[in-house]
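Researcher: Sequence of Cytochrome b-c1 complex subunit 7 follows. Predict its structure.
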Amino acid sequence: MPQLSPKPSADIINYKSKKIPFNSASFNSSKSKTPFRKWVYNASGFNKYGLMHDDLLYETPDVKQALKRLPEDLLHQRSFRIVRAMQLSMTHDILPKEQWTKFEEDVKYLQPYIDEVRREREEREEWESNN
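Model: Prediction complete. Tokens:
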């Protein structure tokens, strides 16, 4: 049975026998998070279909209620992006690179509505539990 290596210390990461100094404070700074987040965003692949992050949310009851509150133009834009992505997926194609959704342009347009719905639901549940 192979021997497991000991857990690396908090300030040193052992990567294939090379010790790399690791400073968690610098990793947690917003400046260092952005390149990593951008890499993860691009690696996820949904932007190649022109989709935005909020287009991919699982439709829970809160999300469904938030979608009902979304302005009509945003709802139409969302529907267009989803239908276009499904068409591209069925044809095993992606958009030209200049049409990909860029990390900087991906706005969480649905999140404020979801937050509002959750607050209302939690308030309603609290009120019902007290009465």
